[in-house]
Structures are given as C-alpha cells and as structure tokens.
What does this fold into?
Amino acid sequence: MCSDELNPRSKRDHGGGLDGAIAQYGGTRADWIDLSTGINPIPYEVSGLTSPDWAELPDHGAFERLTEAARSFWSVPDGVAILPAPGASAVIARVPALAAQGKVQITPPTYNEHAAAFSAQGWAVQADGPAQARVIVHPNNPDGRIWSAADVNAPLTIIDESFCDVCPDASLIQLAARPSVIVLKSFGKFWGLAGLRLGFAIGHPDLIACLNDLTGPWSVSGPALRVGTRALTDTCWADATRARLADDSDRLDRMVTAKGAQLVGGTTLFRLYEVDSAADWQDRLARAHIWSRIFPYSKTYLRLGLPPGDGWDRVEAAL
It folds into this structure.
C-alpha cells in the first residue's frame, strides 16, 4: 500500500493554478508573476510557421527531421530509437503498460505523475526495495538530486530527464542503449514552450515500438515538429540560455536567502528553499501577485522559479 506521501490521489499537485490564485487574491493574469513552475521565463522564439503546418497532417519526413535533430542534440547512441510525443506526460501515462503489473520503486519526494500513472494501471508504488520497475527523475524535482548509473538497476527503469538540459554533462542518455531503460525528455522546461506539448521517449527499439503503438499516428502537431526541429539545432541559443539561467538562479538564491530562507537544492530553472512557514511565504508573495509553489508533504518547502526580465524588482520588494 502506498504511503501517504506517495498516494497519487492525495498528493497529485502541480505548479500553476494561477486562476485559483487570482480568485483568492484578485488581479488579472497580466498582473501576476508565476514562479510556481520550473519553466524558462524567456522562451525560445517561435516564428516561421506556415499555413500547411496548421492545416496538413504531419508527414513522415517532418518526424524524421525532428528525431535526427533530437539524436544530435542529446547525443543519443546509435541504434537507440526516439519517439516524439505530445509532451513527456503523455509518455509517462503509457509507460506502465510496457510490463506486467508488479512493484515500482519511486523515491519521494519527486514528480508525482509517475506514481499516479503506475498506480492507475495496478502497480504497487513503493519508496525503496526490490521492484520490477524504477523511476528516477534526474535531476529530481523539487530538490535537484542527481542520480548515477548505479541507480539504474531494475528490470524496467524510466529516467525522467525533463530538467536535464540545464546540465547536459550529467545526462544518463548513454544508458538508453540498454534494453530495459527509457529516457524521457521534455521540451517545455528548458525551451520555455510548455504549451507546445512536445516530449520524447528514448530507448531500445522494441520498447519504443510498443510506446508508438500506444500513442497512435500523428501524435505530434505540425507546429511542434517545425519549432522543435529548429530549436534542437540552435545550439548557440542553448549555450547562451544555460549561462543566463545559471546567473539568474544565483541571483535568486542571494535574494531569497538574504530574507532568512535556506537553500535546499534545485536546478537553474527552479530553486527549493527551507523556510519557517511555506504557507506564510506563499501568502506574502501572493498578496503582491507573485505565485509560488508549496507542497502537501512539507510545511517548510518553498519552490520558486525564475522571474521574467521585468519581474525581479517586484519579487525583491515582495520578499
């Protein structure tokens, strides 16, 4: 039986939810700064879309161009298959169907959709111990924990690298060559285009073929194919963005710890702090129309994303 912390029904919370914050604290969406997600506040520029991108079913060539761009950007090993999908969450929901029901190890705290997906398909979710499947979020959300190859030790292991594009040298992508490993990638975080709904599953051709059967044809939109291909080949933008995110996350740490918070961890897209009362800090920020992330399993964890370019002064004033 799942512990309360792992129970997907009681703990299936997410960042966002700005409409609820507005209902409680007032203002309009334009008035608010949303720091509750780990999405890059300065997204990759979307341009050059054509009428056929919207009007026509995507053809095989567009999928091939995207997968080749992904193979190059993430240094995917030869012989490993890549499946584009409508967001990493679409893959997360289908992965449990790849093996017979059993036990899955998911170490908390972490992104709760994995436990929800496995539980929904009859798996028993446990925090540790031998299991038929294992999920590691690398780096982990919300504390930024980095895992190693030694942690990939189950008959089926899912490595969720949704936030790993900020630290590519830490990637475990080479393990995707193993027949029991699937690496997930998200396009919405690093490139800041969560609304595009684009993600990837990378692994052994047999596993990816099964996932492909579950997702069906034309799973990725024409606009997502075009934008994703362009972004994955724009390595200059990626390098400059990593440098900016590192500078901005350091700036946020200085700002927040100066007010009494203690840094727990995170990535350069989000920071996790220990505070006296997370609910009080969230309330204080919300009164200034700044939305933050707190967690049902901790009274002291506060997670903050990065402010947009014009939001730093407002955040500092609210703190």
